[in-house]
Design goal:
- There is one protein chain.
- Helix content is about 40%, strand content about 20%.
- The protein is built from eleven helices and 14 strands.
- The strands form three sheets. Strands 5-8-2-1-11-13-14-12 form an eight-stranded mixed sheet, sandwiched between helices.
- It is globular.
Amino acid sequence: MLTIPSTRHNARGVESLVDALPSLQRLTGQTIVVKLGGAAIAAGNPDHVLADVALLRLVGVRVVLVHGGGPEITAEQRRAGSEPRFWHGLRVTDEQTIEIVRAVLTQHVGPALAAQLRLLGATAVPLSGDDGTLLVLRHVEPGGEELGYVGDVVRVDPAHVEAVLDAGGIPVVATMGRGGADGHAYNVNADAAAAELAIALDAMALVLLTDVPGVRDADGELIHELPASHARTLLAAGTVNGGMIPKIDAAMRALEAAASVDIVDGRVPHGLLLDLLTDQPVGTRVVRSPIAARGSAHCLPGEI
């Protein structure tokens, strides 16, 4: 007997695509910076994230993928007999550690992500922030702590990134930088690097993918929409701590250019697309003010 497959499931999928059309129209031609943290990679299979990135690029969204590699760097440090040390989410980086960072990010993680994107039909080019003057850093000692080769971004030259975007590709950027004073390779927080790239590229949105549901308040409740003023209160009260501190700092910095910044649970299947194409953020959306995100998924600059 001939079995005719049910079309109900396929029809729902088509309806979902049609529902997403207005959001796709807003995104097409715009630049989106997506930061894929090493913890998010380690917490689950990143294939769904890369599929989302490839799809966005194929429908005309200019996507920059910024990546870290924290868990792999930590593992390599321990294999080399060095116990990793952190200060407020920032890795203490001596001469041995910076070489480990370079090897992990530029020889393994970046090329592997680019290769996976190519398998999905996208053109992807691995880059590093210490290529030329892409990310120029200054040595920092936050709180008087000596962190070694750790820097803050003081200048961004996005020419190589823009060239890849203009050619229809996806830049896959490793978060290292070059010291402006000494020319040495430096480690830079991936959230901070993504924020500075978003500003330099006049990006429509910045999405920080992580391995937690989002930002929580003092009672442990997930905050879906977080105005910048309240974010500062959470930081001052110590409610936000550890690795979430640089994410909030980066979000508030990027709000100077982007309409909003989303901290998204990268473990949610296709959470990137759900976040960008629906009204409800998959995690925490940091906005300039509550009205900024009201009524649409992502507003274009000038629409808030």
